[in-house]
Amino acid sequence: MWHCRNHATHLCGKHDCQYYFAVDSDAQLTNSDTLVSLIEQNRSVIAPMLSRSGKLWSNFWGALNKDGFYARAEDYLDLLNENKRGLWNVPFIRDCILIQGRTLELLIDGYTNGDLDPDMGLCKTIRNKGMFMHVSNMKKFGRLINSDNFEIRNLHNELSQIFDNRLDWEERYIHENYSKVLDPESPVDMPCQDVYLFPILSNTFCRHLIEEMEHFGKWSNGQNQDQRIQGDNENVPTRDIHMNQVGLERHWLHFIKEYVVPVQIKVFPGYYSEANSLMNFVVRYRPDEQPALRPHHDSSTFTINIALNEHGVDYQGGGCRFLRYNCSITASKVGYVTMHPGRLTHYHEGLRTTQGTRYIMISFIDP
């Protein structure tokens, strides 16, 4: 790590660059004017203030202890929370740093400083040279992601980041119109009796989940005997993959609690779900595999059914028919969820997929 960073400073000096701009993978810059804003401050060494969303972890220290390590500055929280805004002289910055070219000449190999890590080594070199470092919180520049627990076992590992990087996860995976559903003054569509339809997940999430399941590839055989569930028997089997098979069940249950339950409380007032679900799975319908599903009740207090791909483009036919009400939903948009009671009243069937492949995400909530 030291050698790579020092090599970068050598290359910058070799090409007589005006600025050296180092951005680590944990730095997420969302302001396209970040570089221009930093250059305008005309400081030898400067960083945009970045922090983890909802955390006190940032890319600067306000003070050092006698051993040269972190110490809490009196005004650290004021700077972090932007109660005070401006350009601040600080003893340590990291993750995203802009250094003027004429200053860089004095910092060649500056990342190497005893046994210190590269960031601390560079900042100690800068301090030893009698230079100032600054951090700016004059604008919103972006944030830091938390890569400490980033998993690499899946195809789309961002799917599991709902805990550690919730803001990034929401921006990538929650439907752009979901917030409107939570508006108390905004009605939720009810295409069939007590069946609610609303946007919840982005096209990107739906595509990633399909690709994740196909990459895993271990679809069930659609038979009643199923060792994945308690009792080893499924009364109404489908061709499916469970979320726990791809290591995403804990994340999905959190999604239900945070994003599904608030809408459930709105449309079914008086019931407060515990967001429990033992059955969370992606179903695949194909004309030559399993094209439809016979009439049945779900083992749930309420069920969610999310369309993962596009009707009329990826597949033809399909949908869900509620027999008691003779009402069908046949062309849900990608990322839209159908929410309905599971037992007693909403006897339903999966309509025949006649062409292509249809994917849906199902959860039986509060069984």
Termini separation: 51 Å
Number of strands: 24
> What's the main sheet like?
7 strands, antiparallel
User: Which structural class is indicated by helix and strand composition?
Assistant: alpha+beta
Order of strands across the main sheet? 12-13-21-17-24-15-14
Our estimate of the beta-strand percent is 25-35%
The total of helices stands at: 9
Give the fraction of residues assigned to helices: 10-25%
The rounded Rg comes to: 27 Å
Low-confidence region ranges? none
Mean pLDDT: 94
| Molecular shape | elongated
Characterization of the model:
By secondary structure, the protein is of the alpha+beta class. Helices cover about 25% and strands about 25% of the residues. A seven-stranded antiparallel β-sheet has the order 12-13-21-17-24-15-14, with helices on one face. A five-stranded mixed β-sheet has the order 1-9-3-10-7. It starts with a helix and ends with a strand.
